[in-house]
Amino acid sequence: MAGLVDIRACARHIEALQRPGGDIPWIEAGIWDAWNHGEGAMGLAIAGRETAARRALDHLAERQEADGGWTGDLGASVPLDDTNRHLVPGTPDTARDTNFTGYAAVTVLRSLLALGALSDLPRYWPMVQRAMDFILAHQTLQGDIVWRARDGDEPLETIDSLRAGNASLYKSLECAILMGRLMEAPVDHWAQARRKLGAVLRENDARFDRKGTDRRRYAMDWYYPVLAGVLTGEAARARLYARWTDFVKPGLGCRCVSDEPWVTAAETAELALACLAAGKRDQARTLIADLAPLKARSGGYWMGWQFVEEVVWPYERPSWTAGALIMAADALDGLTPGSGLLVRNWVVEYPVRPDAEALPAFLSA
């Protein structure tokens, strides 16, 4: 896989961005949120940068707020400079995003597996429990989870639910359930929440984007139900096939949005993971290979390529882009323990008993 992704160079780039306190911003100038911090942490762990990965996990635990959530910068709101090339963080808008909070479960489990350090799970288990409490407090009666924390007594119905974010939370709950079983802790309530979430994602699409914004133009809305295991088998392959030509630019990668001539490295790496989850290994490898022109000589990957103007845009190398490429390379070639965590369902929705399933081999070894 070294010919497709230089894992060491990507990890060096992430570690160079990491700050003394352990936090991993998007870029040197700033922008931080728990989800993208987690991408960097997992990349470091998979690459064997143990000290840096542990610093990232510890920072995440220290930064968690009392109710289990995290306040993060809204990177999408960050403007570009006068040249239209570089992000200018300034003082970004912030939010307490449920998906970003839930991703802590994925971050902890994937990092500890890669480091061969599941014995350290008790250290981070309280953080995972609080994060799951935060998520479940924002699940509606219909099963979807609103995208941000409510403001005081704000009704959940007044807050939108996002398809991609909810699919990601489906995987986060799975990771939390697996860790709960390792800790011999009750997980029935998490399993029930995940069942409801899976059902609404598959059967009640009207619960998403119900506040007027149609996000189906975003690639993440398309592939995340497959990547997260909400859809499997033929249903997963059918979903990818249905909009493949809308999003995939042959030879370049995956568009971030269907109506813009802009392929992005992170979305392409995640689509490769979705392809692996759907059993499309050749397509996954091709997607990663197509990103070769976006490799930066100094490490990491450029965020994206505007293929009409034929320019790198924006001129940034986010930590989370490097992390996503590391995880895709790892999953494709099985480089570290737990490499299949993100591309398979490890918890069935309706077991005979919550503890009836055998633990995956990489957890029970």
UniProtKB/TrEMBL annotation:
SUPFAM superfamilies from the UniProt entry: Six-hairpin glycosidases
A single GO BP: carbohydrate metabolic process
Domain of life where this protein originates: Bacteria
InterPro entries: 6-hairpin_glycosidase_sf (IPR008928)
Alphabetized Gene3D superfamilies for the sequence: 1.50.10.20
Protein name: Prenyltransferase
UniProt organism field: Maricaulis virginensis
Lineage start: Bacteria, Pseudomonadati, Pseudomonadota, Alphaproteobacteria, Maricaulales
